[in-house]
Amino acid sequence: MKSLMRAVLFLLLASFAAAASAHKPSDSYLTVTVAGSEVRGQWDIALRDLDFAIGLDSNGDGDITWGELRARHDEIAAYALARLAVALDGIACQPRATGHLVDNHSDGAYAVLRFEAQCPKAGPVLDLGYNLFFDLDPQHKGLLRLVYEGATRTAIFSPDAARQKFELTKPNRIVQFFDYGREGVWHIWIGFDHILFLLSLLLPAVLVLSHSGWRAVERFMPAFWDVFKVVTAFTVAHSITLSLAALGVITLPTRLTESAIALSVVLAALNNIFPLFQRRRWMVAFAFGLIHGFGFASVLADLGLPQDALLLALVGFNLGVEAGQLAIVSAFLPAAYWLRRTVLYRRVIFLGGSVLISLLATVWFVERAFNLKLLVF
């Protein structure tokens, strides 16, 4: 029992700690296109990360202007390209900057660095070494989209996988499917607002509301079927809007989507404290799952969908999201069931956890809706 208590506490505390550090971790987006002996690329790097690394806000007013960014273009290029190694067939190619732009992603403004490298000769293997920000933030990830002969594949650079080799052959459909499936798993695990929304819906699954307050369910199966309905409703809903948004059928402003996602977390957590939808939580999951689908779609848009395997990549990403979600549910539900009768679960994990989630998500909502920065971390 004690080990189960520690496991549940660890899961909740890890979620809160990760979420408190940022609602989206540090990522950069690297697109590399190989054509013969030429390597062209575009590197989208968050301004907040560059500001932390080399200091872009010269007047210290909290805003990075185009003038401040333009004045540091050479320094940005030197800093980034010194941390990117490119080789074809084992022979190093020196990338050089060819242009600078600014773009907006779901979590803010990014500097866009375009570069190219003329390699001595074409080769069957591309070797990439990525070391951006790893010395400053070990949680940083580089999200690669590699394009060769019109086909796309993806990969993730991390401190443990900073150097990777890619066979320059047109990837088969199975490779592309699993590439995007892996991305789906990764992005549900780093989507802290999605995780906290899901946890808010899972917390009361092992309890039942009576006139005297919350009490533990007597058997596991009712809790299981309650979770099954909630997760299924959430899955169906976000799959619908993820697909529609990714295919360009429906688009919503990012600010509206991110604000609505934060609000959904607030309402789901408050429903545990002031229950209104105890017997219809699957309806809440479905309604807000439609909004969360647009959030997943923004991530997929950042990665880019391969036009030669559009449907396959979309299905792979969506199934990856579901696999990551299922892993969270599988870890949480059995432990919560064993702890359901304890004061620790009912007072600390269920009630205290719901209060913490609602407070954190309220700050997120205010930040996103009014374009403010309230959290200093």
Distance between the termini: 35 Å
Mean pLDDT: 86
Domain module count: 2
> Helix share of residues?
40-55%
Hey, roughly how much beta strand do the residues contain?
15-25%
Task: Tell how many strands the DSSP assignment holds.
Answer: 12
Provide an overview of this structure.
- By secondary structure, the protein is of the alpha+beta class.
- The chain folds into two domains: 2-23 and 190-370; 27-172, Immunoglobulin-like (Sandwich), CATH 2.60.40.
- Helix content is 53%, strand content 21%.
Q: What is the topology?
A:
Layout: H1 2-21, E1 27-35, E2 38-46, H2 47-54, H3 66-70, H4 73-81, E3 84-88, E4 91-93, E5 96-105, E6 108-118, E7 125-130, E8 141-148, E9 151-157, E10 163-167, H5 173-189, H6 192-202, E11 207-210, E12 213-216, H7 220-246, H8 254-273, H9 281-303, H10 310-339, H11 343-370
Parallel strand pairs: 1-8
Antiparallel strand pairs: 1-2, 2-6, 3-4, 3-7, 5-6, 7-10, 8-9, 11-12
Helix pairs in contact: 1-6, 1-10, 1-11, 5-10, 6-8, 6-10, 7-9, 7-10, 8-9, 8-11
Structural features:
about 375 residues, alpha+beta, Immunoglobulin-like, 6-stranded mixed sheet, 4-stranded antiparallel sheet, 11 helices, about 20% strand, disordered N terminus
Short description:
By secondary structure, this protein is an alpha+beta fold. It contains eleven helices and twelve strands. A six-stranded mixed sheet has the order 5-6-2-1-8-9, with helices on both faces. The chain has a four-stranded antiparallel sheet with strand order 4-3-7-10, with no helix packed on it. A two-stranded antiparallel ribbon has the order 11-12.
